[in-house]
Structure formats: structure tokens, C-alpha cells
User: Fold these one by one.
Assistant:
Number 1:
Amino acid sequence: MPSLTVDGARTRAAALSVQSYDVDLDLTQGERTFGSRTTIRFAATAPSSWVDVKPDELIAVTLNGTAVDVAGLNDGRLELTGLQPENELVVVATMLYSHDGEGLHRAVDAADGLAYTYAMSFLDAGPRIFACFDQPDLKAPYRFKVTAPEDWLVLGNGAATQVSPGRWELAETKPLSTYFVTIVAGPYHQLTDSHDGIALSVVSRQSLKDALDREAADIFEVTKQSFDEYHRMFTHRYPFGEYHQAFVPEFNAGAMENPGCVTFRDQMVFRSAVTDGERSQRARTIVHEMAHQWFGDTVTMQWWNDLWLNESFAEYMAHRVSTSATRYTDNWIDFAYMRKWWGLQADQRSSTHPVAADAVKDALASLDDFDGISYAKGAAVLKQLAAYLGDDVFLAGVNAHIAANEFGNATFADLLAKWTEAGAVGLDDWAQAWLRTPGLDTISATRTATGIKLRRTAPAAYPVARPHKLTVAGYDADGRATTVDVLVDADEVDVELDPSLAVVIPDAGDDSWAKIRLDAESLANLAAVLPKIEDGVTRAVVLNSVRDAVADAELDPKVGFDVVLGMLPSEQSDIGVSTLLNWASTHLLGVYLPYEPYRGQLASVLGARLETVEPESSVQLSVARGFARFSDDAERLQGWLAGSGVPAGVTMDADLRWLVTLQLARLGAVGDADIDAELARDSSSEGVVHATRCRAALPTATAKERAWTRIMTDADLPNYELYAACEGFWHPAQESLTAAYVDRYFAEIAGTEKLRSGWVVATCARLAFPRYAIEQRVVDRAAGLLADESVAAGIRRSIGDSSDDVARALAVRSAYL
């Protein structure tokens, strides 16, 4: 189907003004389809336009009482001619439930057979649910009616009332963009509360009832604290009435900011033990989506090129408000270790792009830029801007922007103007350097006879002079710090800091956006000093510097691996432990370095840490998970499953059992029958997904062919099971077993677009990529697909990014192995 272009959107927005939507859904028609009747009232200044609708069957359409030929539907668009100044369009259709997390998704819980639905209208999935003028700048109020089974609960953007058994009516909403209209319907378990005049609720599947009952207090507490903080910061109160948080099955993203009814992936209703870092991540997700209620929902971007502003603002606010208003205080540690690393990698790939791009891409191509640059880099830059402007000016501009564009649409230029009116100066130059130019500078430190010299180097492809306001920290042999605040506004800046200090760290507070390079003496002293540096953010800055230098083939990956081994015995943050282990898994073992003997060394360090780590702590859980991932001691792992030799303080709950089973599957120590037995023990939907991953990981030709067939040919495979099959398939210890599938990937992946749509297509292409095949032929085959414009853009983007990573790994191996 053609994707909406910015020119097409501008033409339609100039011609139409949408006054209201009335949508009536019938969810009682069976397991495959549902009924959809949409009445749209709109004004027009042009004689023709089109409406977007993607039905299973288009039954009837009338425009101002006159029938429209349904045979005119072409690739999801129905032309409308003879438009009047005032119009009423009625579209009656049968729609397909989806299994890919978009449109009206229907999932059946394996635990009890109950079916659940939810609507995901982003980015262009709204027409799979109801007929609409599907673009962000044609906002209108919505009224929904829903017919559902009598034991179902229905929620949506407006307050829902059950007017008769199985029949629900939802209150008229404020003007909404099509992409965040939602309905949540099913036999959900609901808990209610209220705060400051706002009705609150949380819902989940019935099989997660006990978990939601345990977790609801924390979710409600974070929600209430965040409402208070946002009401303090913003002059506009929350405007969308009730506030529901629906934890729904098989959700692709972390969450979606639908006004009044936010949807979350239901893994956030923790059924097993989790770390403090995972709890704080959930809190940030809650706070992130709440920020969108003002920035994104009340004021919405005019076109998708400004989607970054919604996400960057919410990302920044998630970390800021979680820190200031909730009990979770590790937010900027998480940002430094995880979110920033995500963005730093994206900003160095061939697909890098400005944070604030021009409005040139169509809707689907804009989705490709929904990445670490749009989230993490934008958030880091906004954090800098808030510090530079001061909160008075920063928030005054934001509040003026919301007031001027309430329930409408705006651009980044509109926001810059409001900041300027509030007192900011020089924002155009700042925006050009930081937001409209891709890439990132390198900040390196060298020692002189009298101090430290910082050097700023812009990327050759994107030369621009960016100012960096940061802190340089010097540490002595005992880990005592001396810090100096520095403005790097030239290519070389002298810093008054003792050059004899053991370790010198530029941007120790993680305040800028740059590649950080340590000098040779600091690197030599790192193993002894880093365990004594207590600040979690600074430790993350060091690790990011090491990770980036290794990726650039400037630092031997064996040195990087030694840093991992050196940090693990003393790391006191579960976020830090998880980051170290994830880097070892995704970049070191089997990528930059051979899988063995390094895997064995890592497992040995983890085993030793298990003996000393505090029982029942988050760090212990992270270490135990890591040991389960990297150990080859099948007998010990099988003992854990049997309840023997489990470290004191570790609970072998469902999710940890599956992690152990996955490693045993990779080792060939269990087979299909053992996985079946574990699934009988945990017959939930989560168990089905875990079992799928384990089956794909089995080291047999039969298991690999079975998994590959599902990935490449099964159009009905639910999205989570698809992702699990991809995740289990490749492993560096199974290189010879999966070698034949490298060429098959490039031959077959383009065809998956015909099986699936939207988000899941690109995600599958990324997860199924042969990431451990570090060979030039992989880069060459990828280049061939990238040049083929008949291949879906999302697939090409995933392949391009993955190929860039393989090319960097080849350079690292060439330099050091």
C-alpha cells in the first residue's frame, strides 16, 4: 500500500477540516473479524479528496446520503468526489483482527483461553480499525460505541459506560489525531483509584491478576507523584478526563501514549522477581507516557518529521521527573548505560540522521527514524538546553507552546519561537549545530606539563562547531575525585587539572553528547582505579568510552573484555551488571572476539561473584541471570531446575527457570520433551513464548529448519512468538549448524513483507539477521538488498544497520585478531 507523503498530507489538510468521528465497533462477530461503522463529519474547500480504510470487506459507503462505489477502494484509499462545504461520510466495513500488534490486535491467553483485544493506531494502522483521514494534523473529537461479549470490560480515550449488557458508549473526546485513538476490550482484570480529581485504573489479563494486585500500589504511586509534578511544571492541567493504564498482551513497543488510555506491554506486570533497575524502568515508562499527554497529545506534531520532539521531550521528562518526584533515583545511571549507548550507536551508522529532520519523508519512512537518535540524543540535547536556559525560560517556553497550540498541531519552529519569546537567545545556531546536523564530536583528553588539554573533533562527514558544557574529573589512585567545569567552545581547550592524576575522564557527569576518549595513562590505570569510582554515571561514561573505542577499532577488544571482567566483581548497580553482560553478549563474544575461551572466563567471574554477592539483592539476581546465560555447566544448571545448589537468595521462579532452560537447550542438554515438560509447568502465554525461543535454540538441524520455516513463512504466527524464534535461532556456538541460513536470510527476508505489516516487518528483519556471521560476504549481500528499492524500507533499514555492525566487527577483527 502507498504511504502518505508530506505533500499529499498538506494538500488534504488544506482542503478538509474534520468536525467529528462517530465509530461503532461490533466485537461479537467471531475470532477473525469485527464490524466497523464510521460516520465522519467534515468541511471541504475542494471538490475531491480520499478517505483511508483497510477492510477485510468494504460493505457500504455513503457520502451526503449518496452511495459511493466500494469497488473504487484502491490500496487502502477510497476516492471521494462531489464534496460539499459540509459533508457526512458513512463507511460500513468488516475488519480483520490482527496478530502483529497493530490495528485491533486480538490475543488468546494460553493460560485460560480468554481472548483480549486492544487498538494500536500508530503510525498508519488506524484505517485497519475505522475509516479516517489518517494524518496527524487532521484532529477531531471522537465518540465510540462498542458491542462486546457481556463479560468484557471496554476502555478508550473517553470515559466508557456500559449502557446495556455488552453495549458500551464512550464520552466524546477532545480533538485527537488518528494515530493515538484506542479501544481496549476484553475480560480484563481492573483495579481503580483516584487522585486530584482524576479517575485512575490499571488493567491486565486475568492470568496476571495476582501480579497486578501486587504491583498496582507502585504503579499508582508513580502515577500520582508524576501528576503532581507535571501540574507543578505545566500551567495546563491534565485535560483528558480519566486516566487508564492498560497492560496488554503481545504489545510491540514499551507503551503508547493514547490520551486517557495508555497501553503498555504486559511484561511490566511482573510475575517473577525483577531488579530495582527494571522497576525504575517501568516507572520511567509510566512517566514518559504521562509527559506525552501534554507534549504529543495536547499539542501534536504537524508531520512525522517532528515526532522526535514528542519522544525526546518525553524521554527527558521521564528521567527528570522520575528522579525529582518518585522513589527511583537511578534514572540518569540507566540513561548513561543504556539509553545513551543506544543513541550513540545509531548516530554512527550510515543511517544516521538529524534529530530534527526536514519534512521530506513519507509516513512509513519516517518510522525508520524512530530510533535512539529521536529518543536518547534528543533527550540529551534537551537536557543541555534546559541547563543552559534555566528552568524559568525553558518551562515558560514549553507552557506558552502548549497554550498557543492546545488540541492542535505545531512544528519545532513554533517551539523555538516560544523559547525565544521567553528570553532565549541564539537558538537558531544551537538548533542547527545540535538538532539539524547529524553525527557526534569526539572529545579526547591529553596530558600536558601543566594540566589537561581537551580536543574536540567533529566527524568529517558533518563538520560543525558544537559547544560542549561538561565536567572533567580526575581521580587519584584511591579513587578520590577532583572536578572542573569546562566549556568546550573551541577545538582545543586547556583545563586546570593535575596531570599526574591516575585517571582523567572528560564529561564525567554525562552532560554532553559526544564520543569520549581516555588518554593512554588513564587506560593503563583503569583496572586499578575504576572499582574505586563510586559514581554510577561516571562508571557508565567510562564503559561507554571503552565500548565506543573498541567499536572504532581504536582499542583492543581484549582490553575491553578485561574491563568487563574487572568491573563485574565490584559493580554495585544491577543496571551496570546487566549492561556489562549485554555488551559481552551482543558485541564481544562471537563478534569482536572468539566465543571461547572468553565465554568460559566470563562464566568463571560470574560464578565467583555469586559466592560473594548480597543475597536477595538486585545485583544478585542480575549475576544469577548472567551465570545462567553464560555457564556451560549443564549439571549445575539442571540442579537449579531441580532445586539443588540454587544460591541462597535466588528464587527459581518461572522466568528464571526459562532462562536456565534456554541455556540448556543451546548446550543440547535438553530436548523437545524437556521443553514440553517446562511448558506444562508454565502453560501461560509467556511460557509459550519462552518455549518457542528454547526450541529455536536447540542445536539440531531439525530444530533450526522448524524455526526458520516459522520465521519466513508463517503469516499467522503471533508477533511475540515470531520474535522469540528469531532470538533463539542464531548463536556463536552454533555457527556451523546455521551457516547455510546466512544466504537463505538474504534470499528470503524480503518476502516476509507479504506476510506481515508495519512494525513487525522491520523488527523481524533485525532479529533474524545473521549477526554472528562476521564475514565480508554478509556485508556484500546486504549491500545488494539495500540497493533494491523494491524491498520494504523497514527491512532495508534493519539490514543496513545490522550490516554496519558487521562491518565494524570486521574492522576490529582485522586490527586485533
Number 2:
Amino acid sequence: MVRVLPYGSWPSPITAGSLVAGAVGLAEVVVDGRDVWWAEGRPEEGGRTVVVRRSPDGTVADMVPSGVDVRTGVHEYGGGAWWVANGVLIHSDRSHERLVRRTPDGDSVLLTPKPAAPRTLRYADGRTTPDGRWYVCVRETHPTDLAAGEPTNELVAVATDGSMRTDVVATGADFVAWPRVSPDGTRLAWVQWNHPDLPWDNTELWVADLAADDEGCTLSSARCVAAGGESFFQPEWRSDGELHVVTDRGGWWHVHRVDPHTGSLEALTGGEAEIATPQWVFGLSRYAFVGEDLWFARREGGVDRLAVQRPDGTVDDVAVPSGDGPATSLGSLAAHGDGIIAVAAGWTTEPAVVAIDPSGVRTLRAPRDLGLDPAWFPRPEPVVFPTTGGEVAHAVIHPPTNPNHEGPAGERPPLLVLVHGGPTSSVRTQMQLAIAYWTSRGFAVADVDYRGSTGYGREYRHRLHGGWGILDVEDCVAVARHLTDTDRVDPDRLAIRGGSAGGFTVLAALTFHDVFTAGASRYGIGDLAALAADTHKFEARYLDRLVGRWPEDEAIYRERSPIHHVDQLSTPLLLLQGSEDAVVPPAQAHAMAGALRDRGVPFALIEFPDEGHGFRKAANVVQALEAELAFFADRFGFEPADDLPALAVEGGSP
């Protein structure tokens, strides 16, 4: 029997602890012979990443010792910290950032020298040469004197014999990525770019002749193959030596065949869909060659779909079931037999490692068993809504969903607007317990792909140029008004939450608009000028595109920074921050808290001393989410069914 209770007060088996209990993040599938390898992020093990191997007989084993964290700090966001070939694993160890080689019998050898200062030499995105002698990868060298300037990014070849030899093979660009060795070992392709661009802006595709033997590893005849004001993603050599790459030169990210001699590119896929995703991390893969067939994932209509292009150009969609519906999120594609291995998830299932071939779909690594009926998970609704300037924006609406409870007649649910980070990113198109946590308690959730998000073409992605802090904020306000105007949510109980760049949007929405009645900012940006002056190399010039040139456009930075307009802020706010954050330094949260304190606006600040940019450790994930529920419950006047820790709010109760 369904029981009537006020929205927000519904009891739910989806606790904050269940978000991390047994939770595993799956990524970076690599097929090595008959073995399938992947990476697992484990919050319950301190947030470390573990490399796992599945043998043909189904045996699954961790391939690094207990306590080893396979991560890298290149670009601060990492990814691509390992590779395996012929059973030999090469990986970065987060504790010291040096490369380690591990053989099938368990022996390990350090491959890179000890840096002059801890973690000042970092490595990512590597591939071994066909003979296994060299590991060609990105190296990021940080100066030991912080006043000496920004890190240097280069392509290097690391000897795999333990001699500590490292040869620089490509240098000069501000950033390099995707070093890919041809199947015969005679050529190398890579992507590079310079400030103020980021990898989703304007990049260059390069190819060079590669000589790698006992005498060393060198490049010759290096040439820029293409650089037409476009974003390149995932260059790959087919087994016959033909080069391919994803580029958005036609307005959407699609796979192209490359002629390295003439620089001509031939589009193989097309339409209003995107194969690439923004390269915030290394180790991404969205297509794979299976013989002469091209298997690819594409974002279309707000979700991922899988397809195969045959040699004659015909394209067949591939159905990938996930739970009680189709897979809506696909990634980490790798060729395997006459099909692929991928990480797949749906609206009612968390990610799984699956094998997909003409015979069907097999699960190699199942998602955790939540012990919950699918009726607890919301069925999302993609919406296109009107926003400012006569334009439209996108969002995914997750309605309140609880099989045992419903709200009183005439009452509308509170709304939580979620703002993704980046800002060049997108909403996650899969089941998220972090969203079901709210919907199962009676919240409606709007996950917003504001202008500037990815998945809708280059024009929409770049629409935020010059408009960050304006257009993204207007879109979040617009979706809240759209849902109140259609009588779907309570206009007096509108909350907004975001992290990093999304946290900036939260702060700006609360400061410059009078729509939301509560907010939560996770490691958000309050002072754009401070971010421009004090952030890491990868994003050092990001704001040149999004806001304006620094310091020439200082007035714009000040105008859009919430910290300078706190006199306009009267909405209660929860601030969550990691003390070790190198992307958005803790000083930003402290400054915002100080201004709120002086202003007398109710707020709470929780700082996690053992976290960086994003919360990885289980206890901190739980504390942050429970603090948000306690804060919103106090603000919106409902009694949660949960037994929540007390939250100290300064400036009086909201």
C-alpha cells in the first residue's frame, strides 16, 4: 500500500552509505591476447585505482599489490596511467608518480628515475613499441621551484629494461596527448595544442617516422598533418597501418580516415551525433576496429548508442540491453574477437564490463548488487527548454520515485538543479545512486546540459565562449522556471548544487538571481580572478575563452565573480571543500565563507583535509551528501526520515 508523506520525508533504502558500499568505477578496457584488463576505482579502498585482469576461464584478479594506487597527476585530472601488452603491465604509481613494470610472474621494476622533488615527473597515456623495448608516453615535468614557471609537457620514450633511460621524442608544444605507435613500429601519431586552447578547442594532428631499437628511440620527418581549427580525439592505427582520428571539422565529432602524406581527411561517420567526449582525462576510447568493421559509440539525442559501420559504408545499430532497458552510456571500447569489450550502463543499472559481438551481449564484470527493485530508480525524461536570447538548452528530468510513498494532493515536490562541472562537459547518462538518493526521498532533479555542454555539436559546445557565468546561470534559472511554470515543482523550494565549475554556476545563480532558495557548492569558484592567477597548467588559460583575457579583462572577471557581490547574496549556502585541491584552491571557499559571515547569511563550511579536487574517499562522500540533505531539509521545512549528523550552520538557522 502506498503511503502519503510530505515530499522530502519519504523513507528510502538508498542511503548515503550505499553510494560507496561496494561501489566501483570502471574504465579503460584493454584487450591483451585472450585476456581482458580494466581499471577499477574503489572508494572503500581510499579512492585508489586498481588494474584488474579477467582470464579466458573467467578468473578475475587484481594485478597490482594491495595499497598500490594506479593513477597519475598529469594535467591534475590524470587517466591513462597504465597499459598492458603481452602480459607485461606498465603503470604509474600515484605515491611517487614513477613508472613501474610488472611481469606476469609478479616481478616489478622501476622504469623512471627518482625526481629531484616528490612527484615532479609524471607520466600518462603510454603505448609500448611492438618489440616491447620502449614505452612512448606523455611526461609532465614540474619545476622544483614553484616560481620557475609552469610544467613542461613532452612525449618521451622510456626504456622498459629498467635502465632508467628516457629519450625525449617530441617537445615544444604546450600540451601533447594520444601518442600512438603504428602496428609495424615505424610511425608515431599524436595530438598537440597550445595555450589558450584546450583539447576540445583547436588542436593539431602530427605524424612522424619512428626509429626504436637498442640504440635509442627517435623521431624524424615530424609533420603536422591537419590543424584546421578543429578538435582531434583518439588517433588510431588500423591493423593494416591506416590512420584514423575523430575530429569536429564538420561541426560534430566524427571518425575520419587520414592520409598522412597529403593531410586529407575523409569522414566515415556523420550526422548530428558526437563520437568524442571532452578529454578531461587520458585513456578514453569511443571507437574500435574489428577487422574492417568500425564499431563506435555516439551521443545522440542526449544518450549513447552503439553502431557498426561496414566496409561498404552501411551502418547497423547494435542493441545493448542494460537492466530493463537499453544501455544509455557507453565507453572504453576495445576490439575483442569479432566484437568489442565496453563499459556500459543504463538508466536503471550501474556500469558493467560487457562483451558485445554478433552472438549477443555477455557480462564480464557485473555491477554491484544493490538489492533494490528497479522501481526505486527514476525514469529520466530528456527535455529541451527555452532560455534567454530565443535559444534552447537541454536537461534530463528525474521525477520523484518511490514505490512505497507519494506526496500529498496539491503539494509539489522540491527541485534540485544539478550543475555539471567542466564547464565543457555533460550530464551522465546512466543510473546514478546520487540522484536516486534524492528522487527516492521525494525530490525532483533536473540535470542540466547548459549552453557550453558537450554532445550537441561544436557550436553548442563553444556557445559559452565569453559567456561563462552568464549563459550557464541563465539556463539553470530557465529550467527551474520551466518546471515551476508547468506546475511540476514547488517554486518556494528550489535548490541548486554543483561542483568545481558547476559550483561557480551555483554561486553566481544565488548571487545574481533571486530564484533559488538554497544552494550547495562543492569546491566551487567564487573569485574568477583568483582562479586565473592560481590554477594548474592545463586550465591556466581556460578562462581566456570562457570569460576574457587575463589581466586585460579584469573588469569582466570582477563583474562575474560572486565574491565581489556578496551584498546581493541572501540565500543560505553550504560550502564543501577539499584541503588538497590544486585546481580550485581552498582559499576560494574560505574567502566566500568569510564574506557570508560578514554579511550574516546563513551558511556552513565543511573542509575535508584528505581530499583534493573531488571527493574520492567513502567517508567523505557520505558526509558531504548527508550534509546536503540536512541543509536542504532545514531550509525547506521537512523532516527527513534519515538519522543525520548535526550540521553547524553559522549566521542562524535558514
Number 3:
Amino acid sequence: MLETLDAAAVRRWCDGGLEALRAHQREIDDLNVYPVPDGDTGTNLVLTLTAAHEAVAGPVEPEPGPEGMTAVARLMRRMARGALLGARGNSGVIVSQILRGMADTFAAAVAVRGGELARALRTATDAAYAAVARPVEGTVLSVVAAAAEGAGRTRSDDLATVAKAAAQAAAEALDRTPQQLPVLARAGVVDAGGRGLCLLLDALVEVVAEGETPPTALARDRLPVVSDGDRLPAVSDGDKPLVVPDGDKPLVVSDGETPPASAHSGMQPMVAGGPAVPGSGSGDPEDPDPAVCSKPFTPIGGPAATTVLPISGHPADRADPGQGQAVWRGEDRVDLSHPAGHEDECAGYGFEVQYLLEATEEAVTRLRGALDGLGDSLVVVGTGDGDPPTWNVHVHVTDVGPAIEAGIEAGRPFRIRVTPLVGHRPGPERRAAVVVAAGDGLTALFEGEGATVVDRNPSTAELLAAVHKTGAGSVVLLPNDANTQAVAVSAAREAEAAGIRVSVVPTRSPVQALAALAVRDEQRPFADDVIAMAEAAGACRYGEVCTAQRDALTVAGPCRAGDLLGLVDGEVHVIGGDLTDVSHRLLDRMLGGGGELVTLVLGAAAPPGLEADLRGHVHRTWPFIELQCYAGGQPRYHLLAGVE
């Protein structure tokens, strides 16, 4: 058995954890408890840990780093950072924060023994709860908290003893989740995110016990069953199983977060530090903008993640390469503030892009070729020192996005600066919107509103790249799915570290995003504009028609796989077998509560005559309603409806 956790053991843990999640991916997907088609927890956890696995693939020097951190601490930070940037769904974000909490504890440890592991799990619990706006017990949060408590109870410094105690306590907490969330009990399943975390802890036990099978693993190699021994069919809504209101029981989300306020109670925009509403800022009387949290976010890796590292031994290299600064490339001194022929070479290129990059020499060679085809005034400097080396990249381009994406593909860019050249509005004054959507029609609609569109179920890195691609200093994120909101908030935090002001309006449907973009006005202050967009989105009730993926018991009664479901604000209200009939009943249910404007977005599988039929039904039944209809082309959902 291992006495201490070293870098090689962390790699084996990451390998084993990813292998276990892949082996149980479908099982965890099936633990979700809602029948609509969406991203699933097992898939999201696999994608998140795959990003972490890629992050730890490179070599790590065994000697302490510049901050005195050991190799295991540096590798753990890379693992946590990779998980954060690759996080998918609420479950992925929470697991990335668990890894971050462990990495923070390891950074201060000389060696990682049992006591350090117990402290790391306590820190991980704090980080996981802090990542969720409204923590809910009976989720992955309860499981990690139990793991930390079980590890602490051992009062042992033996690594294997503490790891086994944590895994055992997590397994017991997982078994209790149906008692804490009625929706899990009704479906006869345990929490999906918690199940994934238990697999990761089991993988850790196998590493520190050097091949010993955790005693909890065999007991959890099957899905939980209900009391009569017949496993109920699981139903799925990705990472967000919902409880239909029963009396005064609130809606809950399985990965530790209650859903945002419904359309009836308004919608609060969120920034990296909290909701962007009047009086909800940092609490500092000196904070000029109460709608934006002024508390700075420190990326994983601490100040080094956002500080220019020395490129050579020359004093000038330690300076921030800003106005008038110079860096060195071999024997040649290069002035980055005024590249040769700057005034003439600016012609035809709208932006100056500059960032620091951690990447291998081979990757930088490919990067030079890619950037050379995108723009001019290209300078990539560095001595090759470090593992991986740090480079300073500078280029003039017409489109910011590809230049930053090329850096992300090559390595880890940071301290990203985008400066409009002569004749362009300064970046900090520009505003932009980033929207998550799928379907050619919806993409065209949002792009027509001036928004940058990201495909459904994005990672933190993909949203962050889209924010940088806008070249704007103030950006609104519209996730259009409760499952993507945690990812959007993580991307907002990362963007803040790069000096970009980002607010998240927690839209849960594309029709809410359309309503929000319709009231956008760049003439008013950014905070006021965000609040107006949030109010417009919150005033838009949304409906959906989709096909049930499995048998389930809903508030509207039982449904079978293949049935058509009509949902209003995320709850099943209509069940049927005919698309036209279900769509009529859904619209009548929504308009029965009032409304003046109806927006319909037809899915990719909508039959040719559906639009004409729905127009006729609305005009006959609700003659005073204004109707807008679009071909969205979105997958999975045959119809999206918004009522304002």
C-alpha cells in the first residue's frame, strides 16, 4: 500500500477514474429521473474527466516548483484545471470544484498522507458547496460531505485507511439519497452525480491500496431497486432531474442546485460572484456597479495563471509586455508595442491579439503556421524554458475567435488581450451576447440579433472561447438550459480573470433568449441592460414538445417511451400520441394563463404542415394573439413555444 500520494499515483487515479466512469456511463445516464431528451450525467462526467485526463498527460518535474509546490500538487492543479475547462453540466462543474479543493490542500502539503487527504476532502466539500447557488441535500454534495466526514472520523495518517473510510462513507451517503429526495425514491434510483463521485473514490482506493478492490464497489455494481425488487425505469433530463411540485415541496436539481426562479417570479441575472440585481454586488460601498460582483476570481494555479512569466534572464522580460515594453527572442529585441510597419500593416486588420501561452515547441510551430494564415504582424517569442515553455504571441487579425482558438489548440493561453486597431471602438466599451443553441434556424435567428452562438451542452472552455471571440469588454451569456447554467457561471468567472465583464441571464429555453435579446439596448448602462434582459426572459413562459425517452410517472400521469410530451416551464402537462393534438393542447394550456405574443420555433423533425395548422388553431381559438413562427431546426424538441 502507498504511504504517500505522489504524482504517478494521481495519474493512475485519473486513469482509473475515467475508465470506471466510461464503464458505468450508461448506468449513470439511466439514473436520471425525467423523461425529456437531454444531456446525461454519465456522459457529462466522462467528458469532464476526459479533459482532466488530457491535462495531466504531460510530464511533471519531480523537484518543487517556483512556489515550492511538490510535483503531486502541481499535477493535481493541472487535473483540476483541465476538469474545470472541460466541465459539462452541473455534475461536471461540481466535480471540477471538488478536484480544485483537493488541489488547494495538496499545494500546501510537503507530502500527502492520510491526514492531508482528509483535509483535502473537507476543502473539496467547501468548494463544491460554494459552487452551487442553492445547495440541495440528497445530491453529489451530500456524498462528498459524507466522504469528508468519514475520512475525518478515522483520525489516522494512513493513506489507505483514510481513502477506504471516505469511499465507504460516500457509498452509505449515496444509498441515503432517495430518503432525502422524494423524486429519487419514486424512481427507485440514487443520485447520478453522487454515483459518479463514488466511482472516483473507489478508483482512488484501488490506487493507494495498490490493486485492492474497494469493499463498496461490488455492492454498487448494480442499479438500486425499489422495495418490491423490480427496478423502476429511469427517466432522464441530463443533470437536472426535477421534482414536480407536490404541496409545498420545491423543485430540485439532482446535482446540488435548485432551479432558477420560474418565469412567474422573475429571473435574476448572474455574474461570476452572484446575482446581478440592484444591491446584490460585492457589498462594498465603493463598488460603483452593484450589478457586478467586484470580488476578483483567482483561477486555479493562483497568480501564476494570470501573471506574465519571465521569458529570459533579461530584466525587461519580467515586465508586463504592455505599452512600450519589449521582450527577447534569442539575440533579437522585439518591441511589441510598435511592431515594424505597425501603421501600414494595420490596414485590413481590425484587432491586435496578444496572449501568453504555455505549449510545447512542436505545438507552437503549428500555431505559427495557423496564425500566419489568419493575419499579419505575427510575433511568437520565447526561449523554450519551462515545462511546458511559456511564449508570448502577438498577431493582427480581422476575426478574434480563430486566433484565440488556435492558441487553445496549441496549449494554455492566458493574459489574453484584444485591442481594436485604428478606427475601431475600444474593446472595453463594446458589448456582446453569447447564446447556447442548436439548429441552423435558431443559429441564424440569434446571429441575426448580433449574438455569438455556441452548440448545445458546451464545456467551460468552449463558452470561454466564445466570450473571447466577441472581442467585447462586456458580455451577456444566455445558456438556454438549466443544465448549462453552472458551466456558464464558470466561464464567466474565468472571463473575469481576463478582465472581461460577464453576466449570465439564466434562460432555460431559446424562446426566453429571443425575448431577452429583443429588449437589448446598448445606449443604457450595461447593468441596467442586463436587468432588462432578465426581466424580459422571466416574463416569457416557455413550452416544449418532445418524445419521451423512457417510461415514467409524471405530474400529468404515466407516460411510455415514444409518447409525445408537452411541457410548460419544465413540467409535463400534456401526454399524447399525435404531434398536432399535443401542440394544440400545450398552446391552449399556456394561453389559458394569459398572454399577448406567442413565438413558435419548429424543430428539425416537424412535419411540413405543422406551422400552417398551428397558425390556424391560434387564430381561431385565440384571435387577439400576435403570433410569430420560425423554422428553428433544433434536434430533440419538435416545438418550442414562448408566451409573453
